[in-house]
Amino acid sequence: MPRRGFLAALAGGVAAGRLGAAEAEGGARKPNVVVIVADDLGYADIGVHGCKDIPTPHIDSLAAGGVRFTNGYVSCPVCSPTRAGLLTGRYQQRFGHEFNTGPGPDGDVGLPLTETTLADRMKAAGYATGMVGKWHLGAAPKFHPLQRGFGEFFGFLGGAHSYMNMAGDRRGGILRGTEAVAEPEYLTDALAREAVAFIGRHEKEPFFLYLTFNAVHTPLQAPAKYLERFPNLKGNRRTYAAMLSAMDDGIGAVLKKLRDAGLERDTLIFFISDNGGPPQANASSNGPLRASKGTVYEGGIRVPFILQWKAQLPAGKTFDQPVISLDILPTALAAAGAGSAVGGVSPRRDTRDGDVPPTIALDGVDLLPFVKGEKATAPHEVLFWRFGAQAAARKGHWKFVQPRAGVSELYDLAADIGESKNLAAEKPEALTDLSNAWAKWAVELKDPLWGGRQGPLQRARQRLKGRAK
């Protein structure tokens, strides 16, 4: 079928059959899905991770009412690639989205149109779909959220934005759909307001809301009403605390709206950060974890990761096996009853010849049977990372790290969460096992479509790939 005809049929089918498609067997309404993403949040900066100087009661309430993943990861230590992996359920290196997109409207830099997003799949399953916040997956019109499965959009397209005095922000304006709007409110408050309004518009039908705060990414900006909450903090840490407190309030407003609408029990809610905190930039704290955003050490890729679904999942549970942001898509689809999409059989976009391409496999897994105790095995045998010349793999408690070309390290995370003792010389078998597994995985990947220092990057990969032969 030609692509234009397929998309028209899909849109018509969704519009005509939303009520039927969005009902589970027996006529019950399908659950809503809300994915909340923080930006550059420090691992140790929420209450349930031990933070003492910044209260986060609403984020903490998600953990109290749901499942907290103590070994939760993202697929990249920086913003845009993590979002590409989250929205596709696939390692983003499989389609060349290895580095951040730039600030300008480059026509060729963005989430490839060959990829199907979570919003595409939820829309096809009969859900109302909306995005509020930071996109960072391409600024050209063809990459716009409204072209990637979202029925509504309020936010900005780039990787960062001012929170106040936004009219003069050179990185682009705030958009409602495709139209620029003047936004006088503190941006974090505005995003929360729009998320609440989206829920209000769609509370009578199943919806998918992708709420991506730019807090606590730089620039460090907060109004007095939030700064006044932290008189004992100084400098950047005080502003960071105010920004985080504003985001926590915004999450609280979303949760209140769900309660008031009678939707709290039947809404699947994820909370995650897009990468680890960058302490030097925003005064965040990653606590016991080594390093920060931009690295494949734990401080760059291990993040707060919470799942709540009160109707189905236990409250106050911790889950200790490694999971990754790629799991959000298949988990959401399973909850929505869109089982066929979990196996990768939903149509995806193709800009080459107009035909619907073949199906693809996902790297993420449905976490529901694991957190319910229906499956006792680990969700993943091995998790992998590649970010330029950096490489990492985790299997059980062992983690292989290549922080730069020619350097191989091995850590026992069960005994050394801070990655302080390199065991590569003491445990050569474990190092070889993990580095070989990484090399076999890397053979399946594409080279980056943009960015990166290709010379060192390629040399580092060739060394690792040679081990797999």
Outline the structure in words.
The chain is an alpha/beta fold and 469 residues long. The protein has two domains: 3-371, Alkaline Phosphatase, subunit A (3-Layer(aba) Sandwich); 383-467, Arylsulfatase, C-terminal domain (2-Layer Sandwich), CATH 3.30.1120.10. Helices cover 30% and strands 15% of the residues. The chain is built from 14 helices and 16 strands. The protein has helices at 3-21, 57-64, 79-88, 118-124, 187-202, 224-227, 235-260, 279-282, 298-301, 328-335, 339-342, 368-371, 428-442, 454-467; strands at 32-38, 67-69, 72-73, 128-134, 152-156, 174-176, 179-181, 207-212, 267-273, 305-308, 317-319, 323-324, 383-387, 390-395, 398-402, 409-412. The strands form three sheets. Strands 7-6-5-4-8-1-9-10-2-11 form a ten-stranded mixed beta sheet, sandwiched between helices. A four-stranded antiparallel beta sheet has the order 13-14-15-16, with helices on one face. It has a two-stranded parallel ribbon with strand order 3-12. Helix 5 (187-202) runs parallel beside helix 7 (235-260) and helix 13 packs across helix 14. It is globular and about 55 Å long. 51% of the residues are buried.
